[in-house]
Amino acid sequence: MVNPAGERSGASGSGGRRGRASTSQFGAVGLNLVDPRVEASVLGVLDTVEVELRASVASADPFVTEAARHLVEAGGKRFRPLLVALGAQFGDPSGPQVVPAAVVMELTHLATLYHDDVMDEAAVRRGAPSANSRWTNSVAILVGDYLFARAADIAADLGPEAVRLQARTFARLVHGQIAETVGPRAGDDPVAHYLNVIAEKTGSLIATSARFGGMFGGAPVEHVEALAGYGETIGVAFQLSDDLLDIASESVQSGKTPGTDLREGVPTLPVLYARAADDSDASSMRLREILATGPLTDDALHAEALGLLRESPALKRARETVRSYAEDARARLAPLPQGPSRQALESLCDYIADRTS
């Protein structure tokens, strides 16, 4: 499963055991908190989430505890708890259910990573051996199931609406993974199919994270709905921007070696646009010819395709798509009151637009 902000298999993440939350987490996802009170509040939530995550996965069986804490302790950007903490700023961020809601979201996310690594046959996750490579595929799948169960258990303490939303979000995640696995059916638009997969697999959980923040912070209903719409759209925008960075970046800005998706034959947005183009110039025709061969394991072909994509109209079109999602996310914040919390959410839109320009 693909996740935003460089959290795919093989991403370096933060590496090592996590300690206290820090402002470096904000910079990693482009968040700008201009108000020290909001910053202190968000950091306080994230610090407590770290403690509760470890406690929540503990088991009477030491092996289960070790395996379940494997990815918790490997780090990560904690983007979903961050969205919960930010959403809660539009109500009471110190509400007693804000931290448990954030833990539910992160446990659900972590569970998907265990399953993803099995499906992707990944050897590394966040700079550490993946659970499936350290133990076995069966153990990784079962630990993912355990984390889903723990998330549901905590959600039950938040009330029936939380359970319903978490279950529906999980259903969307599974639908998205199935759609990606099956691929577009005959007559489907591959681009529309791809965007739907990202919305289901990535946007859905980020949407629920922002929704939970507003809900359990006690924000007005119209603010909660605005946060949910923003969360889904910004989640899709982040993933699409990672697609572009995989092609356009000369560094490891995306958390991976540039061109990884291209080498593995993953049809991301720039590739889909290039395949669908009807440009008759020599470069576009040559690019379509190379992309039709599937995974580009040949170094020379890979380098040629990467160079052609970087100069292609397809990449420009993909940039425009990312920018449109970022602006859509910003527009969804309109019902929220002006202030530092809204400015923080808007800063994510600016970051996405700038990182792929």
TrEMBL record:
Stated EC number for the protein is: 2.5.1.30
The answer on whether this UniProt entry bears the keyword Transferase reads yes
The cofactors named for this UniProt entry are: Mg(2+)
Biological process annotations from GO: isoprenoid biosynthetic process
Compositional bias of type Low complexity: which residue ranges?
1-11
A Pfam match is polyprenyl_synt
Keywords noted in UniProt: Magnesium, Metal-binding, Transferase
MF (Gene Ontology): heptaprenyl diphosphate synthase activity; metal ion binding
Q: Which leading EC class covers this enzyme? A: transferase
In which domain of life is the source organism classified? Bacteria
Where is the region Disordered?
1-21
Which protein family is named in the record? Belongs to the FPP/GGPP synthase family.
Q: What is this protein called?
A: Heptaprenyl diphosphate synthase
Supply the source organism for this entry.
Micromonospora parathelypteridis
Starting at the broadest rank, the lineage of the source organism is: Bacteria, Bacillati, Actinomycetota, Actinomycetes, Micromonosporales
